[in-house]
Amino acid sequence: MPDTMRAMRIHELGGSFRLEAAPVPRPGPNDALLRLRATGLGLTLVIMRKTPGLISRYPRTMGHEIAGEVVEVGAAVGTVQPGDLVTAHFYLTCHNCNFCRSGRETLCPDFRGYVGLACDGGYAEYMTLPAVNLCKVPEGVSALDACVAADAICTPYHNCVAEAQIKPGDLVAVVGAGGGVAIHAVQMAQVCGGRVIGVDVSEKKLETVSRLGAFAVVNPRKSDPVEEILSLTQGKGVDAYIDYVASKQTLEAGLACLGRGGKLVIVGYRPPMAFGGLSPDFTVNPLELLSKGQEIHGSRYCSMQELRQSLELIRQGRIKPVVTETFKLEETEKGFQMLEKNEITGRAAVVFG
Fold this sequence. Notes:
Blueprint: E1 4-9, E2 18-23, E3 31-41, H1 43-48, E4 66-73, E5 85-88, H2 98-101, E6 126-130, E7 134-136, H3 143-163, E8 171-175, H4 182-191, E9 195-199, H5 203-211, E10 216-218, H6 225-232, E11 238-243, H7 248-256, E12 258-266, H8 286-291, E13 295-298, H9 304-315, E14 323-327, H10 332-340, E15 347-351
Parallel strand pairs: 8-9, 8-11, 9-10, 11-12, 12-13, 14-15
Antiparallel strand pairs: 1-2, 3-4, 3-6, 3-15, 4-5, 5-7
Helix pairs in contact: 3-4, 3-9
């Protein structure tokens, strides 16, 4: 085992990544040491590196959508062993409260932070994690596909199954549909039996959304999305409106085109301090919500079980990870800049040789 490794680290809030030599971490008794094979790049971390209070110390190696080979385990670890290909749950939780024990880890009251923010993550050649956060990757699923599953696929699994509760025949609007997470929601909603309307401001991304099976696409820069969605649904509105942008405009549009008994699922969020000071607060008419029996859901990440189920859907070929850009470790900052400029369709990843 080498003593040092290459790592892309940031040294201040909103700072750029620098390629540096860092010590190879050593696993504690409950930890595993991983040799990274692939680590996803997504807008979540573009936002998080600009958001105060999330990164616990600097310098920090970010990166939570990981796939790696276990090379060493602590003395108390019995769930994984050297040679296993694993991915990881993003949240560091207590694993013992009522929420953790019932599969709602994202609501843990003893939340300890995020992988890659409260501890070093996957933009490095090696990393350590608590073994309880690791999920074995099934045979037949590649490291690249597994790293995407760790957020960009398990998140829409939770959005579509647990929150939107999509049923066969449901009409589903996916907002920001060409993004790294939402593009997999386009597929996931169809796996659940839904018929998808993809909403995005990029024509290039909408072409991909159409190829993935959306029966209609809407570009808010070209037409009023509420009018378009109501026309496409014969005035009934959608059964689920899953919003990966979550601006004031997209959320209020969602309420306006939501059908009776419909569910507005809020997934994305852009803190005002990170993106131009625009508040995402939106207005709700309680009488409209009440009379139509509509619901608003806040949807955060997924459970460990949902991560396992997402990997199984990939193994079965029912969900195809959409990765359109890959980068070398030293190109991590380039990937972040492309994400910030909205230049990447689907997901991107750092791939290790």
